[in-house]
Structure formats: structure tokens, C-alpha cells
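Q: How would the C-alpha cells look for this protein?
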Amino acid sequence: MVGAGGGLGKSLAAVFSGAGHDVALISRTRGGGGAAVAAANAADPACNARFFQSDATQPQALERTLGAIGAEMGTIEILIYNVRGEPKWKPPLEMTYDELRDVFELEVVGAFAAAKAVLPGMIARHRGTLLFSSATAALRGSATTPLYSIGKFGLRGLAQSLGRTYAKEGVHVAHMRLDCALDGPLVRRIMGDAFDPHDVADPDDVAKSYLWVHQQPKSAWSNEVELRPHTETWLI
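A: Here is the predicted structure in C-alpha cell form.
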């Protein structure tokens, strides 16, 4: 998994470990990655959970890291790209060229580098899963957070292109669109007294949906998955 911080990253590590998978957890910092490793080990003490430090905005380095994971831990069966930048609140004309490049490198170039590193092996084995964490911003532009939308549009386009190209080779690609806030300390702090657990998604439940997509039979694959709590007002 690329983007193995706290929150959803930690839940994904625990859920996939609990399902019998060894997990390689990539993060820019050891703090978030360490929490995910601990969660994976708690879910299954027999799991081989390891942290690898790498930056998704450095594509060649990310490719090398994934290559090292394959060499040290064995075949990569599932790739989860769980990386996102923080939305910047500004109208389009206030965006800078550097900000555009940064969001494209994080959301699209990094995702492509990760996919490029694992796809040849998956194609050769005629099986594998690529799951890309995304958001409703992938379906609509924004007057207030255009950078975030631009990045997610690009990520969705990449996921669809990979899926259309390599599904026939046995590779399952899914764009996982979260139309909700995820429960966690930051969301609870922001919402304050207005916090209601029914209005947010439980990261553990979201992670179980990722596992469900991975386990789907080839005759009934999901390629575009949207997740939201039952109380959410549909944005799309």
C-alpha cells in the first residue's frame, strides 16, 4: 500500500492482514507507517508487515521501492494507492503552476509509477488488483478547491485507462470513490459538538469494502465503487 498513514491506511493494513495477506506499507514518514504496521500485526501476529519509506512524488524512487518489496517479500498481488493532498481553498486564477504540477505528480504520476512497477508481474500471472483511493471530486469541478478536483479527475482517468487495457489480462482495477468524511480524531475535532458517528464512514468498514472488491469473481468485477454512510446527502 502506498500511503500507509493513520486513518484509512491503518484500517486497510489491519483488514488485509486479518484476511491472511502480508502487507508492505509505504509512507513518507515512519510515524504513520509504524501505526499501520502495528495495526496489521495486531490483526494477525503471523502477518509479515513491513514499513518502507518512499515519497509518491518521486516516481523513480517509488518504482524502486516497490521493486524491493517484490524482491524481499514476494509477489505483489494487490496494490492500493491511498495517497491524497490536502485541498487548498482558492479559486482557479489563484492556482500556481507549481501547485498544478505538485497535485498532478502526487495524484497521477505517483499512481502511474506504482501501477507501472507491479503491472508486468500481474499481467504475467493473469491476476492482480489495483485499488485507487479517491473522492467525489473526481466527478465534478470545483470553484473553491479546483486543485483537488483536477488531481482526482486525473486519477480516475488513469484508473479507467488501466482497467480498460488490462482487465482482459486478469488485472482488476477499481477507482474507490469516498463520498463522505472518515471518522477520526481530526474530523471529530472539526465537527465538535455537531459530531454524529452516523454521519461519517468508519475507516474499518471502508477497508472491508476494499477487501470485498479484491475478492470479487472475474465474472462480476466492480471498476467504479462509491462509498458513503447511509445518512450522507448524495453529492453526485
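The two ends are 28 Å apart (CA to CA).

Strands lie at 23-27, 49-53, 78-81, 128-135, 171-178, 224-227.

Upvote if useful.
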